[in-house]
Request: fold
Amino acid sequence: MSLFKKAKKTDKETAKEHGKCMLSRRNFLMYSSTAAVSASVISVNLFPGTAQAANMNARVVSYPRKKVANLSELKTNKPIDFNYPDDGPQTQCMIAKMGVQAGGGVGSDKDIVAFSYMCTHQGGPLQNTYRATDEHRTLGQCPFHLSLFDLRRHGIIVSGQAYESLPQVLLEIQGDEVYAVGMLGLLFGRNHNLVSG
Ligand code: FES
Reply:
């Protein structure tokens, strides 16, 4: 084994020992885009059992929890609009009960999802572009450059100029109420999903 290969293996092993993990870009954005909407301080030890062991304070932040719909008002394939994570620019979103199971879907049929309306290419507005066919549920085509996003598969790009998935709003259900609690992906036009980030 070459020295280079040995060094790479050592880095990998070291990372494993320290409990680090490789994050996908979506996961990285999900976690790194959080900001000080609500925050708490916890004490962590990054390198337990080593010479570098020491307790440090880490700031834990999270998205707001916002009610966006009632289950009883969601009609199949009739999206409802809302803003998230705040009422600022680029925060227009939709929630839809799609009648078919979807990635990230909530509800008894796992068919309720929510997404940003802002096309990830250049921010084209996707309002009024929700489409349902026998098998597919999409947002698009974008009026600017025709991008189309698959809502059953976490908003991945199907065709067009965009190269990022549509940001998906994470949902939770409590009784008859549906709450937005986070977001996968970075909203178009923002450096952070949360203004104070
Ligand atoms: S802005 Fe939507 S495809 Fe270009």
